[in-house]
């Protein structure tokens, strides 16, 4: 993709979501780390509902280790994969206390060593908690990048990240991450993207395909069909007898 088209995509999405930001509620790097860990295969909205009480009960790594694992599991039971996540949280807290003085490290290399913390989580933490430019590729960023041609359909998550890092100016990495998430979450949705009102439709193969399919469906619906009270003609195609 040309630099001009990349710039058009970034500027257009930027104008649509100028105030895009991390929607996970947190007040410090530790809370953010826990929130992002909980957000895997779960919506930010659900995570925020759980952490509203979780962060009142648990203020430090010591707090999470002061209760039985079963109690922590119950505290986050509304979160998907809550048993594994509860185990990872306690393992993470033990490691923070043993190796980092109870503080979340600011280094990406150190973050990915923590239990339950992968590359995406580390990217979110270093960029939002420590101001280090990074592009975290979640399901929204991956979907939007592939639909708009910023990455290939067959690219892995890591390949998508590398391509975005190459195409997007480094000083825009974090903001672009948030804007792509907002664009994917509120406009270019997985199941019902708003292609008809999308200012980037001309760059989107997926959008063009969907619009063409929708147009064909409208054409089929507009065909003149027998009245509902009459019987279908013997030679009428089966798909037409089922419409209307």
Name the features:
Endonuclease Iii, domain 2; mainly alpha; disordered C terminus; Endonuclease III, domain 1; 2 domains; 0% strand; 13 helices; 244 residues; 56% helix
Fraction of helical residues: 55-70%
Overall outline:
globular
* Rg (C-alpha, Å): 23 Å
CATH architecture of the largest domain: Orthogonal Bundle
- Classified by CATH, the class of the largest domain is Mainly Alpha
The CATH topology name of the largest domain reads Endonuclease Iii, domain 2
% residues in beta strands: under 5%
Give a description of the structure.
This protein has 13 helices and no strands. It is mainly alpha-helical and 244 residues long. The C terminus is likely disordered. It is globular. The longest helix is centred in the middle third of the chain and has 18 residues. The chain folds into two domains: 109 residues, Helix-hairpin-Helix base-excision DNA repair enzymes (C-terminal) (Endonuclease Iii, domain 2, Orthogonal Bundle); 100 residues, Endonuclease III, domain 1 (Orthogonal Bundle), CATH 1.10.340. 56% of the residues lie in helices and 0% in strands.
């Amino acid at each position: 993709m040309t630099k001009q088209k990349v710039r058009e995509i970034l500027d257009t999405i930027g104008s649509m979501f100028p105030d895009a930001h991390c929607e996970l509620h947190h007040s410090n790097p530790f809370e953010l780390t826990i929130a992002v860990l909980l957000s895997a295969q779960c919506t930010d909205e659900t995570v925020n509902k759980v952490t509203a009480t979780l962060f009142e009960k648990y203020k430090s790594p010591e707090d999470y280790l002061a209760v039985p694992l079963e109690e922590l599991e119950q505290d986050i039971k509304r979160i998907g994969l809550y048993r594994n996540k509860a185990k990872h949280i306690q393992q993470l807290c033990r490691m923070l206390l043993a190796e980092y003085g109870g503080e979340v490290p600011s280094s990406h290399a150190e973050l990915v060593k923590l239990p339950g913390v992968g590359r995406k989580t580390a990217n979110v933490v270093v960029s939002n908690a420590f101001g280090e430019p990074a592009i975290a590729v979640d399901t929204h960023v991956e979907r939007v990048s592939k639909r708009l041609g910023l990455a290939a359909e067959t690219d892995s998550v890591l390949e998508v990240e590398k391509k975005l890092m190459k195409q997007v100016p480094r000083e825009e990495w974090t903001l672009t991450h948030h804007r792509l998430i907002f664009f994917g979450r509120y406009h270019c949705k997985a199941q019902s993207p708003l292609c008809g009102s999308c200012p980037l439709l001309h760059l989107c193969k997926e959008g063009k395909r969907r619009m063409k399919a929708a147009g064909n469906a409208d054409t089929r619906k507009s065909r003149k069909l027998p009245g509902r009270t009459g019987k279908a003609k013997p030679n009428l195609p089966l798909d037409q007898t089922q419409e209307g």
